[in-house]
Design goal:
The protein has 190 residues and is α/β, with parallel strands linked by helices. The protein has 6 helices and 5 strands; from the N terminus they run E-H-E-H-H-E-H-E-H-E-H. The chain has helices at 15-29, 52-55, 65-74, 91-105, 127-140, 166-186; strands at residues 2-7, 33-38, 77-83, 115-122, 153-155. Strand 3, helix 4 (91-105) and strand 4 form a beta-alpha-beta unit. The two termini are 13 Å apart.
Length: 190
């Protein structure tokens, strides 16, 4: 079993990365293989609705998309994380997800029944819109999203500050634990 975490933050080792790695740590402790991918510094073009993915089982745009999509495709699930940027997820993350959704849909719905969910980090507000935006992407792709003790959000601005949000950290740990539990049930190990 393998879970991938994708950070949509342009800040390397920022709060979004910190929470995703926290979740992966919980999953690793449960014996689940993990992988972390940061979109920071990667070229991620926006979807042009060219429908090239209906003709070929890949996105025809040339950038850093394809290896990340392949990692998403072969995983048992994935968690995405984003800081709040003016009330929504980062453009880089949404570019990845929009394109991945199209390629998945036109090539057998490859994300259907994978496990995962979103994490949002806010300095002050906007996390509710961001988490909803990302959650809707999981829903439209037929994925299974376990709950937690609250929404998968935490607060912080400066690097590492998010770890001061005790409830947020506890929520992410519980979310990751629920992913592990669900994977074990799905794979007949629990």
């Amino acid at each position: 079993m393998k879970i991938l975490a994708i950070s949509g933050s342009p800040r390397v080792n920022g709060n979004t990365d910190t929470l995703l790695k926290l979740a992966l740590g919980v999953l690793s402790e449960k014996g689940i293989e993990t992988e972390f991918i940061s979109l920071a510094g990667k070229k991620m073009l926006t979807c042009t609705a060219c429908m090239g993915c209906k003709k070929e089982p890949r996105c025809v745009l040339e950038d850093d998309f394809e290896p990340i999509f392949q990692a998403m495709k072969i995983s048992d699930g994935f968690i995405v994380g984003s800081p709040v940027y003016f009330g929504s997820a980062t453009p880089e993350l949404m570019a990845l997800l929009d394109r991945a959704g199209y390629v998945s849909r036109y090539n057998g719905h490859v994300f259907s029944r994978k496990v995962g969910g979103p994490i949002a980090v806010a300095r002050r507000i906007g996390q509710n819109f961001t988490i909803a935006q990302l959650l809707m992407w999981y829903m439209i792709n037929g994925m299974i999203v376990p709950g937690s003790t609250y929404w998968n959000i935490a607060f912080g601005r400066e690097k590492g500050e998010v770890l001061n949000d005790e409830e947020g950290v506890r929520t992410i740990r519980t979310f990751a634990g629920n992913i592990a539990w669900l994977l074990e049930k799905i794979h007949g190990r629990g």
